[in-house]
Amino acid sequence: MSSREKLHNTLVEIFGLRHVYFQPPETIKMVYPCIVYMLDHMDTRYADDKPYLHRKRYSVTIIDKDPDSALPDKIKCLPLCRFNRFYTSANLNHWVFTLYF
After folding, report:
1. CA distance 62 to 34
2. What per-residue confidence (pLDDT) applies to 54?
3. C-alpha dihedral over 28, 34, 36, 37, to 10 degrees?
4. Domain ranges for the chain
5. DSSP string of the chain?
6. Is 61 within 8 Å of 94 (Cβ atoms)?
7. Strands 20-22, 34-47: parallel, antiparallel or unpaired by DSSP?
8. What average pLDDT does range 89-94 have in this prediction?
9. Are the CB atoms for 60 and 37 separated by under 8 Å?
10. Dihedral (Cα; 27, 31, 32, 36), 10-degree rounding
11. Number of other residues whose CB lies within 10 A of the CB of residue 97
C-alpha cells in the first residue's frame, strides 16, 4: 500500500467520512462536508550527495457548509500538520492544512 493510500485510509478513519477525494476531477460532484487533498511538495534530504530521506507534503482542504465544523479541530491534531489558511467560496467554508505524511 502506498503512502498516499495510507493517508487516504487515515483520513477516512479519523473523520468517519466517505467523502475523501484525492485530486478530484472537475466532473465529479462532491458531497459536503468533505476532504480534498493533493500532493503539494516532495522534500529530499541528501548526505554525501545521496538521498537519504524523502518526505511528501500534502495540501488537505476541509470543505463544509458549517462555519463551526468540528473537522478542522480533528485534523490539526495529526502529527506534522499545520494550518495554512481559511477562505469562503460559493457559501462553503474551506480550511487548508499542510500535512507531511
Report:
1. 6
2. 85
3. -140
4. 3-100
5. --HHHHHHHHHHHHH--S-EEES--TT----SSEEEEEEEEEEEEEETTEEEEEEEEEEEEEEES-TT-SHHHHHTTSTTEEEEEEEEETTEEEEEEEEE-
6. yes
7. parallel
8. 96
9. yes
10. -50
11. 20
Total-model pTM: 0.88
32-69 tens-digit pLDDT:
999 999 999 998 889 898 888 888 999 999 999 999 99
Give the fold, CATH level 3, of 3-100: STM4215-like (3.30.2000)
Q: Please, which residues have CB within 8 angstroms of residue 95's CB and are 6 or more apart in sequence?
A: 61, 62, 69, 71, 72, 75, 83, 86
66 close to 94: Cβ distance less than 8 angstroms: no
**91 and 64 in contact (C-beta within 8 Å)?**
no
What length is written for the chain? 101
